[in-house]
Design goal:
It is a single chain. Helix 4 packs across helix 5. The relative contact order is 0.17. The strands form two sheets. This protein has a six-stranded mixed sheet, sandwiched between helices. With about 210 residues, the chain is an alpha/beta fold. It has one domain: 3-Layer(aba) Sandwich (Uracil-DNA Glycosylase, subunit E). It is built from seven helices and eight strands; from the N terminus they run H-E-E-H-H-E-E-E-H-E-H-E-E-H-H. A hairpin with a 5-residue loop joins strand 7 and strand 8. Bound molecules: uracil. Uracil binds near residues 50, 52, 53 and 67. Uracil (URA) binds near residues 49, 51, 57, 64 and 104.
């Protein structure tokens, strides 16, 4: 079933719409619009990130494409059999997702990579329709605490009952598995909070379970 995507000129978050406008005038060739989800609609795994990066997804129009986080994420997806092809940080690189889809808790790039609580709430219905629309969905991988909370919110679940932790696996009442990982941002890998090995171990566990 096709998912509901926000309109290209979505104005529900005034601050984000204004930031898009400023970016569009500085870089008219960039995507500069809500970034649609990427991957198969028959996915059993949905990966949820935070929000498009300014020079990454906001430039290229594909989640995690064109910035550091994607350079770790896509090869890991391929290594664990959730995607195939060569990732080349361009939406036309031919990389294919196999049984996997990627979306973001917030669809528009926020200033300084920080969406406000209101913006996360406003965008949450899109995450909800995404999750509801994936008929074969069995697991969701939340990249970071904000994605974790946004996923629980979209299902009407109380975040306090599901503590976020790297590698945590939560069996949700609706039968879905919620897996947590620290976000694969450059900051987290540079500071050693997330190593490649730690990131791989979450995918290895998901591969075992799916
Ligand atoms: N790019 C995305 O699309 N999402 C993130 O969370 C980070 C980078």
């Amino acid at each position: 079933m096709p998912m509901d995507e926000p309109a290209r000129d979505c104005a529900q978050c005034p601050r984000l719409a204004e930031f898009r406008r400023v970016n569009a005038s500085a870089w008219p060739d960039w995507h500069n619009a809500p970034v649609p989800s990427f991957g198969s609609v028959d996915a059993s795994l949905l990966i949820v990130g935070l929000a498009p990066g300014l020079r990454g997804a906001n430039r290229t129009g594909r989640p995690f494409t064109g910035d550091y986080a994607g350079d770790l994420l896509y090869p890991t997806i391929a290594e664990y059999g959730f995607g195939e092809g060569r990732f080349d940080a361009r939406p036309d690189d031919g990389f294919r997702m196999t049984g996997c889809r990627i979306t973001n808790a917030v669809r528009c790039v926020p200033p300084e990579n920080k969406p406000t609580t209101d913006e996360i709430k406003t965008c949450n219905p899109y995450l909800n329709t995404e999750i509801e629309g994936l008929e074969n969905l069995r697991a969701i991988l939340a990249l970071g605490l904000i994605a974790h909370k946004a996923v629980l919110r979209s299902m009407g679940l109380v975040a306090a009952r599901y503590a976020f932790g790297h590698g945590a696996m939560h069996d949700l009442p609706n039968g879905l598995l919620l897996a947590d990982s620290y976000h694969c941002s450059r900051y987290n890998t540079n500071t050693g909070r997330l190593t490649e090995e730690m990131f791989h171990s979450v995918f290895a566990e998901l591969r075992k379970r799916l």
